[in-house]
Write a structure and sequence with these properties.
The protein is mostly helical. Helix content is 86%, strand content 0%. The protein has one domain.
Length: 65
């Protein structure tokens, strides 16, 4: 691949913001979950198990690649 084609491809990737919305929503959900856990301690155990499951699934998928 020529230098200019690679350069243009890099610029296209840098401008791509499609995943940004998903990350913002995930951060908002995380902040809401933390706030809910601080307000109602009984939810903390349930939230912890949910996040541990998510973490396990992500770790499992990362190890398979």
């Amino acid at each position: 691949m020529s230098y200019w084609r690679r350069f243009i491809w890099t610029l296209r990737i840098a401008k791509d913001a499609r995943g940004q919305d998903l990350i913002e929503y995930a951060l908002m959900v995380g902040f809401i979950a933390v706030a809910a856990g601080a307000v109602t301690p009984s939810i903390t155990t349930t939230m912890r198990s949910i996040f541990e499951r998510i973490s396990g699934v992500l770790a499992n998928s990362a190890s398979q690649q």
